[in-house]
Amino acid sequence: MVNYDDLMQRANAAFMSGKTRSLKFREQQLLALQRMYEEKETEMLQALEKDLRKSKQEAMLCEIEIMKNELKGLLFHLKEWAEPEKPDKALVNMLDDVYIFNDPYGVVLVLGAWNYPLQLTMVPVAAAIAAGNCVIIKPSEMATHSAKFMADYLPQYLDNECYQVVCGGIPETTELLKHKFDYIFYTGSTRVGQIIHQAANKHLTPVTLELGGKSPCYIDSTADIEVSTKRILWGKFINVGQTCIAPDYILCTKEVEEKFLEAAKKILDEWYGEDRKSSPDLCRIVNQNNFNRLQSFLKSGNVAIGGKTDANELFIEPTILTNVQASDPVMQEEIFGPLLPIVNVNNAYDAIEFIKQRPKALVMYVFTTEAPIQDLFISQTSSGAMCINDTVMQYAVDSLPFGGVGMSGMGRYHGKYSFDTFVHKKACLVKGFNCLSEVLGSGRYPPYSENKTWFTAFMMRKRTCPVPTKYFTHLFIFMMGVVATILYRKYVE
C-alpha cells in the first residue's frame, strides 16, 4: 500500500535538497537510464510482446530506438540547453545583463499510456530528469508487464529519492491527483485528459496533455497510389491501429477509392498473408473492452477488405470500410484500432469543409503532388501537426515539436521541446550601479516632465538595428571613447 503523503514528502525533500539542479547529477542519471536501455533490452522486448504481442521490429523501431535516440539527444545537448539564454534588449538596457534561466519546476508527475507503454512514459521522464526535476512515474495499468518492468528496474538504475514509480489503476491515479505537483505530463485519451486538467486546475498546475482525435487523410488523383497506399496502411496498422497519430479515416473521391482498395488488397496479402491471424507482425487489441468497442464499429458502412475477428485472441484483422457516412458510429470517436473507414468527397475543398466541421485533429495527412492543394490544407486546416505524402514519420523527426491543439491536446515535446517543456523560463534583469546606467534610467523618476517622457520613451522604443543588441555595450563604450577623444582634443589640447 502506497503512502502518498510520504511519497510526496520524499520527492519534495529531494528536490529542495538541490541535488537535481546539478548538471553532473542529471548527466549521471541519464547515463544510468541509457545503461538500463542497453542492459535490459531483452526484458523490454518481452514486456511489450506480453502486453500487445508486439513484433521485435515494431518494438525496437517504435519504442526502444526512439527512447534511446531521445536520450542521446538530451545527453549531447544537456549543457547547451541548460545554459541561461541571453535575449535581445532595448537601448535603455544596453548596459544591463538580460537572462532567461531554465529553472526546473520541482516535482513532476508523468502519466504514461498503454499503447506504446515504454516509449510514451520514458521519453518525457528522461526529459524531466534532464531539466532537473524530481519525477513520480505512473505507468498505465493496462500494459501490466511494461508497468512491472519500470517498477522493477528503474529503482535499480535511478536515484530512489528523486525518481519513484507508482503502479496501479484509476484509484491510484485519482489519489496522486489529489496532491500538489509542480507539473503534470499526461498521454492518453481526451476524456481522461479533461479529468487531469480539472484536477490540475485546483493547484494551478501547468500541464502537457498529449491526447488524440480523428486524424484525417486526404488522397487526390495526382498521388502515386501504390506508394501512398503502402504508407497509409503502414501508419494505420502498426500496433494494430492503436496509435494516436494513425490516420483515422480517408477522404477521397470514388475513383481514388477504387484504386486504393485494389492496391490495399495486394499489399495486405504481401505483408500479412491470406491468414492474417497467423502473421507474427500483427499486434493484438489491448483488452476485451476495446475489442468489443471496435467490433461494434464493423456495422458502419460496408466491409471492403478484412472484417474477421477472434474474441479469444483479441484479434481484429486490418479492415477497410466503404460507404461510410459522417453520422456512422465509427466516425463519432477516435477509432484506435485496425479499422480504416473511407468517406467520399468530390474534391479538396469538400474535404477541407468536412475537416473544419470537426474538432481539431492531432495530425493532418495529405497525399497530393499539387503544391497549391498542399498549401490549401496547410493554410485552411488546423491540427497539431501535418505530414504530406506519408504518415506517422513526422513523429521520428525530433527537431519537430510533437503535440496537439484544441481537443487533441496542449503542450509539445521531442528533442529540445522536451527539455523546454519541463523548465520554467525565469526572466532576470541584472543592473549595475554605474553612473551612466543611472543617467539612462533617470527619466523614470519624478518630478515628471515632457522631456523625461520623451527621453524615456526614446530609450524604450523598439527599433531595428544592424548591430545585434548583445554588442550594444561595446558599441556604446566605443562611441563614448570617440566623443571623449574629440572633446579632449577640442578643449584640452
Write the layout of secondary structure elements.
Blueprint: H1 4-16, H2 23-39, H3 41-52, H4 56-82, E1 97-104, E2 107-111, H5 119-130, E3 134-138, H6 144-157, E4 163-165, H7 170-177, E5 183-187, H8 190-201, E6 207-210, E7 216-219, H9 225-237, E8 249-252, H10 254-272, H11 288-297, E9 302-305, E10 309-310, E11 315-316, E12 319-322, E13 339-344, H12 348-356, E14 361-367, H13 371-380, E15 383-388, E16 409-410, H14 416-421, E17 423-430, H15 435-441, H16 450-460, H17 472-491
Parallel strand pairs: 2-3, 2-5, 3-4, 5-6, 7-8, 7-14, 8-13, 12-13, 14-15
Antiparallel strand pairs: 1-17, 6-16, 9-12, 10-11
Helix pairs in contact: 2-4, 3-4, 3-6, 4-5, 9-10
Q: Keywords for this structure?
A:
493 residues; alpha/beta; seven-stranded mixed sheet; six-stranded mixed sheet; 17 helices
Could you describe the 3D structure shown?
The chain is of the alpha/beta class. The chain has helices at residues 4-16, 23-39, 41-52, 56-82, 119-130, 144-157, 170-177, 190-201, 225-237, 254-272, 288-297, 348-356, 371-380, 416-421, 435-441, 450-460, 472-491, and strands at 97-104, 107-111, 134-138, 163-165, 183-187, 207-210, 216-219, 249-252, 302-305, 309-310, 315-316, 319-322, 339-344, 361-367, 383-388, 409-410, 423-430. The chain contains 17 helices and 17 strands. The strands form four sheets. It has a seven-stranded mixed β-sheet with strand order 9-12-13-8-7-14-15, with helices on both faces. A six-stranded mixed β-sheet has the order 4-3-2-5-6-16, with helices on both faces. Strand 14 (361-367), helix 13 and strand 15 form a beta-alpha-beta unit. Helix 2 packs antiparallel against helix 4, helix 3 crosses helix 4 (56-82) and helix 4 (56-82) packs parallel to helix 5 (119-130). The model has no long low-confidence stretch (mean pLDDT 93).
